Amino acid sequence: MLNRVILMGRLTADPELRKTASDLSVTSFTLAVDRNYGKGADRQTDFINCVAWRQTAEFISRYFSKGKLMALEGSIQVRNYVDKNDNKRQAVEVLVDQAFFAESKGASSAPSAVDDFGPPPPASRSYSSAAPTASSNPSAPANFGYSSGAAEDFEEVSDDEEDLPF
Q: Measured between alpha carbons, how far is 128 from 148 in angstroms, rounded to an integer?
């Protein structure tokens, strides 16, 4: 069986670090995550409840604040409980295993309203003809020379040519 979740979104509030009676660190927070949308479709955002424990909770509460873009990995957890009116309830949340910074340190343009949360717009890119560069560190990723492109950078190839460029 597999229960893995990977999310990227913005914090809707500053996470608060709490301690349990047995002195375990815990923080609960909500992540605003945009759904994929197509042309003409309205943008929709899901607000996903998350909980982190121990060192992960301490890390999140220390380095993240409202509006910061966060990527996380964890699993879905479902808890059943009875509320104060004796109604059976169910809580669904992400149990965070790891949290990651998802924007540069200098990016401080945090949205001011919850409706503005969402990942940055996708960057347009095209592939350049540059070959990968060798690195002195063989385990380092190769640089493939991705760059922004425009429609003017391309030319039409007719079907009657015998030497196609690929």
A: 9
Task: Give CA–CA dist 11/71, Å, rounded.
Answer: 10
Q: For the chain, what percent of residues have pLDDT higher than 90?
A: 55
| Residues 75-84, mean pLDDT to the nearest whole number | 95
CA-wise closest residue to 133 among 119, 149, 122, 144 = 144
CA pair distance 110, 118, nearest whole angstrom: 10
CA dihedral for 144, 100, 119, 113, sign (positive or negative): negative
Domain that holds residue 53: 5-35+44-105
How many domains are contained in the chain? 1
Can you give the CATH number for the domain in which 96 is found?
Answer: 2.40.50.140
Q: How far apart (Å, rounded) are the C-alpha atoms in residues 57 and 29?
A: 10
Residue 106's alpha-carbon distances to 63, 67, 68, in angstroms, are 13, 13, 11
